[in-house]
Amino acid sequence: LPLKPKALHVLLALADGPRHGYAVMQEVAARSDGQVRLWPAALYGTLRELEALDWIAESDKRPSDDDERRRYFA
């Protein structure tokens, strides 16, 4: 199974701990010095793919003052 570049960037962003989608987008942009940008459709499609492969899962860990609508992945 070849690893797609988007999946690699998402996995690297999640390596430091659970993050919600927007934080993943920001982390990918920061790690790549703005060279890689994940738009929401691509990001959430990649998150679904990685979740289906059981490479990531939704996390129960979240800051206490965070918006409860956010989904965190680890």
Key attributes of the depicted protein:
single chain, 74 residues, mainly alpha, 3-stranded antiparallel sheet, 3 helices, globular
Q: How are the secondary structure elements laid out?
A:
Blueprint: H1 5-14, E1 19-20, H2 21-31, H3 40-52, E2 58-59, E3 72-73
Antiparallel strand pairs: 1-3, 2-3
What does this molecule look like?
It is a single chain. By secondary structure, the chain is mainly alpha-helical. Helices cover 46% and strands 8% of the residues. The protein is built from 3 helices and 3 strands, in the order H-E-H-H-E-E. Strands 1-3-2 form a 3-stranded antiparallel β-sheet. Helix 1 (5-14) crosses helix 2. The longest helix is centred in the middle third of the chain and has 13 residues, at 40-52. The protein is globular, with a radius of gyration of 12 Å. The model has no long low-confidence stretch (mean pLDDT 90).
